[in-house]
């Protein structure tokens, strides 16, 4: 009976996500834009599947002040949730992380990023499949780019798997609609949140207890 329920659950998981379109996009090579600090907080940008999940994970990290859900990595101006879900905008669901560099380093944020996802999954994360859910790290300068590339080399050497995350120069982040912000926290009983987002968050928290706000 448990096996049957398990199969039924994962059959319907894609229906709980936004869409299920697969199309690969590559950002045109360009110069990275460095984002100035805001109210003393640095900003970094990541994509690794549903932004509800990623926002909640980074929000739980000590030294992170705020996380905003949005879209980045594509070529379409003013993307919306509906347009992004077609898989044709080039954008991926992404997050903007506000953090205190005196408390948490960019290198640690990379550890959070890689340690909270299936690093080898291409064009998706978990049940969310499509270019809009692909993993991307956006660097703003050479130092960040070098840190990212070194981390990837270390991970691939130690794990013997290929890291799927794309590495792009940061260009622009488009904030998502207001109802997406803090979605996991505000909608704990949503089926997708209960069955995908919260388990992913708990898995991360169990793996990195020393990085959590609740332990400081």
Written description of the protein model:
- This protein is of the alpha+beta class and 216 residues long.
- The chain has a single domain, classed as Peptide methionine sulphoxide reductase MsrA (Peptide Methionine Sulfoxide Reductase, Chain A, 2-Layer Sandwich).
- The chain has seven helices and eight strands; from the N terminus they run αβαβαβαβββαββαα.
- The protein has helices at 2-16, 51-59, 81-84, 106-114, 142-159, 183-186, 191-207, and strands at 42-48, 64-72, 92-99, 124-125, 128-129, 135-139, 166-169, 174-175.
- The chain has a six-stranded mixed β-sheet, with helices on one face. Strands 4-5 form a two-stranded antiparallel sheet.
- β6, α5 and β7 form a beta-alpha-beta unit.
- Residues 1-16 and 18-25 have low confidence and may be disordered.
Summarize the structure.
The protein is α+β, with helices and mostly antiparallel strands and 216 residues long. The protein contains seven helices and eight strands, in the order αβαβαβαβββαββαα. The protein is globular.
């Amino acid at each position: 009976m448990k096996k049957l329920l398990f199969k039924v659950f994962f059959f319907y998981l894609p229906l709980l996500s936004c869409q299920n379109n697969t199309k690969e996009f590559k950002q045109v090579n360009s110069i990275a834009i460095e984002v100035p600090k805001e109210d003393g907080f640095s900003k970094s940008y990541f994509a690794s599947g549903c932004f509800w999940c990623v926002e909640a994970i980074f929000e739980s990290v000590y030294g992170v002040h705020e996380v905003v859900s949005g879209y980045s990595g594509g070529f379409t101006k003013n993307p919306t949730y509906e347009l992004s879900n077609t898989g044709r905008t080039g954008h991926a669901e992404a997050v903007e992380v506000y953090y205190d560099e005196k408390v948490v380093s960019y290198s640690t944020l990379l550890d959070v990023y890689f340690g909270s996802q299936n690093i080898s999954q291409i064009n998706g994360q978990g049940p969310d499949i499509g270019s809009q859910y692909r993993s991307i790290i956006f660097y703003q300068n050479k130092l960040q780019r070098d840190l990212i590339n070194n981390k990837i080399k270390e991970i691939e050497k130690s794990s013997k798997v290929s890291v799927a995350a794309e590495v792009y120069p940061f260009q622009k982040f488009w904030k998502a609609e207001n109802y997406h912000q803090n979605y996991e926290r505000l909608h704990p009983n949503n089926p997708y949140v209960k069955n995908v987002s919260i388990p992913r968050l708990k898995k991360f928290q169990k793996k990195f207890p020393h990085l959590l706000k609740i332990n400081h």
